[in-house]
Design a protein that fits this description.
Order of helices and strands of chain B: EEEHEEHEHHHEHEHEEHHEE
Strand content of chain A: under 5%
Structural class of chain B: alpha/beta
Number of helices of chain A: 14
Number of strands of chain A: 6
Radius of gyration of chain A: 21 Å
Distance between the termini of chain A: 39 Å
Oligomer: heterodimer
Number of strands of chain B: 12
Shape of chain B: globular
Chain lengths: 338, 254
Amino acid sequence: MNGAVTSRPRADAGRSIARPAAWTVVVGLVCGAVVLRFMLGASGWSWPGAEVMDLRVGAVASAALAGASLGLSGVLLQALLRNPLASPFVLGLSSGAGLAVSMAALAASWGASWVTADGGMAAASIGAALALLVVVAAGRRHGVIDPVTLLLAGVVVASVAGAATVLVQYLMPPSSRGDLMAWAMGRIPELPERLPLVMAAASLIGVGAWSLARARWLDAACTADDEAASLGVDLPGLRWRLVLLSGLLAGTSVVLCGPIAFVGFVAPHLARLLLGARHGALVVVAPALGAALLIGADALRLAVPLPGTGRLPVAVVTAMLGGPVFLWVLRRRGGART
Amino acid sequence: MSLVIDGLSVWHGEHRVVNAVRAGADGGRIVAVIGRNGSGKSSLVRAIACVHGGRWSGSVQWKGRSLPTMAAADRARSVAYVAQRPIVAADFTAREVVELAGSVVLRSAEQVERAIDALGLGDLAGRPFASLSGGEQQRVVLARALAQHDLGGLLILDEPFNAMDLAEQHRVAGALQCLAAAGSLVLVVLHDLALADALAHEVWWMEQGVLRASGSRDDVLDAPSLAAGFGVAFERVGANLRPIVAPRCGPEAG
């Protein structure tokens, strides 16, 4: 059999580039984005001096953790829903967190003394968790999570929470809207608070290790329910874990940087293009590319000053880059069906 | 008997689609499960494979052990199941689909290669699964099932030949016969009764959720009984059973 094994066609024959080159590209993208962001600041291109180094490190760390969390969350959700168009936003978590933070800010503007910075973070966490609970409750059929129903429930929750957020912002005094709207459009903090940073790092490491250990189960989850069961995979149990863990990752990224669109969608696709669809590689590469994307988007935001008003919100940059990719994937899938 | 089914009933919602089936088979045999559409064939084999998600009752024993209560990894080693329509919602190559056999149980590269060779997939192994024809995809998932279960185990196939051309049917039928000769029990749902007649040692005939007949191929595939059950005339040409599905117009019809 050895001869047959050595002479067989390569498993990655259908990939666009060879495996070592793909890993080189991934490492190059991450390093390039980090260097770019370190060199870019409000004063233009330069390697940062000691006085601003902390700000650059804070921004890179925040973007890296949020981007990696979104990338991994996207991989898990796409496996859960067997749909490459899925992303963390599909569960409505960001919208839920956004609504909760908006409501906390509204309470503060009405004189509620309990709303502090920590209170805002707690509100975001509670909002994400509530959105997750509603989506999971609505996405169950006969006691098990149904991917299609879950997807539809996520879309509905996201829409309702988004509309409610606009209403809350409308009710706020104009003087209080600025900060909230800045957060709602994505904001990479240069001086992040310690707690959200530690939470994001801990959840990313924990979920990343679990995903790597369960990579073969995630591969099997891409087959029909009955075939996955025949392969020995506990699909109902796996789906519960995927919902909770992808929700945890999306929630921590929202708390850290606000709602940021498309990173969780684009990173898994880039990873697949480079290294194929096996989850053993995806759960490592997609977070790395998610980090590179968000760090790069933050750098791009700084490189393109807006006349008069400052800089682009980072979520606008990711949406403008990710939207066309989404349409490309949608069209490609449509073409494949026909 | 290696496989013993006792009082197996299966429900879809409130509707009982398999009703108290009792049957059994030994290793080293190919058992064809036949019956008209909606007779409960697929529900029966899905319940035996323990992949039916809904309500069921009864017992399924494999080599003296209860399949439904067996640990998932043990069951995956003993029983492999191939669905009627394979779904692979990822851009896997054909080889990567076969390698799914090792999702839970450890499977060596050699076992994967052997399965690929057995079904003549060497030239297709590096191609994207989605780019293959229906028959080729069926062969790939069949290779996955071959690599997954231990020889001497139970292989359950739900209408595997549907999308295959004659050459593919010939190759797959040969692979199944080799597998049975090596001691595995092959339980295969078939619509093509001529194929069942050529391939199977035994036949289970399902009708409206109950086992209408079971036994050796010659006993069950009796032309008059089949004609009564399927509403189509059958004839034997030499040793071969043939359904008369396209009757010629007689002079009186013109």
